[in-house]
Each structure stands twice: as C-alpha cells, then as structure tokens.
User: What shape does this take?
Amino acid sequence: MKGRSKNSLIAPNLSTTTIELREASLLPCGSADGLFTVLYAFENEGVGEISNATVHAFSAMALERVESGYRLYWAIYVAPVSRLTPVYMAAIDPFRRFLVYPSILRRLHEGWIKKFPTDSAHRPLVP
Assistant: This one.
C-alpha cells in the first residue's frame, strides 16, 4: 500500500485475509459497513478496514458471553500513511473521543436493546 510505513503494525487486510476467514464470514468480504470495508464478520467478532490519504485503520470488535450477559471489546488500530497522520489524529482526537465513539457505542447499545429487550433487572423479555 502506497505510503505505508514498513514497520507499521497492520492487522490482516483485504488482500491478506485468509480464504478460510473470507469464506466463513457472515458478511461478504469487501462489502461496505459504514465507512469501513468488511474483512470478516462472524457471530461474535468482526474486523473492518478503512484506508485513505491520511490513515490506514482497522476496527476490531469481539463479543464475549459473561455471567451478567455480554461484554463488547472494541479497538481501533491506526497506521500512519504519511507524516501528516500524527498531526491529523491529534487534531481530531477530541472529536473522536467525545462525539464519534460515544455516538457509535450509543447506536450499538440501542440496537442491542431493541433486538434483545430486558426488564429493569436486566432479565431477557422472551416468552
């Protein structure tokens, strides 16, 4: 990929995602998921990629069953593609932390509650 540092820590991208991962994915590898491109999506985990003139980034999510329900692990990995990447990331940091990420997590939570409603004691409302 043009401009990418040779020493960047890069998660598997579309060209190196294994055939097994691509074939087992619940969403087609390479399909759009918001701003990201799906690398793979399973029932409890998924990885998406975005690459532009400023960053090459990956969003990784994993859902784990715990005693009280589920726990979501979410990470954004960013690899610089130019000398402007650190400046750009620093400039948008407050926007990401206080607007973008909370909005994404709120949407995920609302979607979860809509799909899996619970009572006030957080017990599932299933017949």
